[in-house]
Amino acid sequence: MTLLPRQPVPALDVATLDGARFALGVAPPLTFDMIVFYRGLHCPVCTKYLTELERLVPEFEQRGVRVIAISSDGEGRAREMANKIGAQRLRFGYGLALAAARDWGLNISTSRGKTSIGIEEPPLFSEPGLFLVRPDRTLYWASTQTMPFARPHFDEILAAIDFVQKHDYPARGEYTGPV
Questions:
Q1: For residue 172, is it within any domain?
Q2: Which residue range forms the structural domain that includes residue 148?
C-alpha cells in the first residue's frame, strides 16, 4: 500500500511498555507523531539506531514531536530491546500486527535464522519505516526500507522539522494525476 502525503494514515493502536496503549490521534501531539517502525530485537542495526533516537528524544519533544518505536515483537522482546539501549525517554510499542505493518506500507521479511548477534529472527517481521504524522492523522513524511541499512538520520530530521516549522513548509509528494 502506498501512503500519500496530506492524506489520512491507517489506524495504529499498540500496547506500550509503560502499560498503556499508543493510539494514533487519541491525544494528538503539538507538531508531529514520529513513528519509528523497527525490525525487532534480533536486529543489531536497530539497536544502534534506537540508541541514537533515545539520546535525541528531548530534542524532538522540544519541537512538539511525540516519538514512539514500534515492532511486531512481543512484550518480552520489546522490553529486552528497551533495556539493551538503556531507554529512559523513548517509548516502545509492541505487538504490531503484520497486516497493520503492511497497511503502513512496510515491507515484510521471512526469517533467515539467527542474526550476527545470535538472536533468532521471528518467522515474519516488518522492515524499517519512519513516519511523521500531523495531529490530524495525515501523513507529512515517510520513509520505508527493504533492508535494515542506511536509515534516515535523526539529526537531519530535526533540522528538517526546524525548517518546516520556520517556513510552514507543506507536505510534498501528494500528486497522483497523469505524468
A1: no
A2: 13-18+29-167
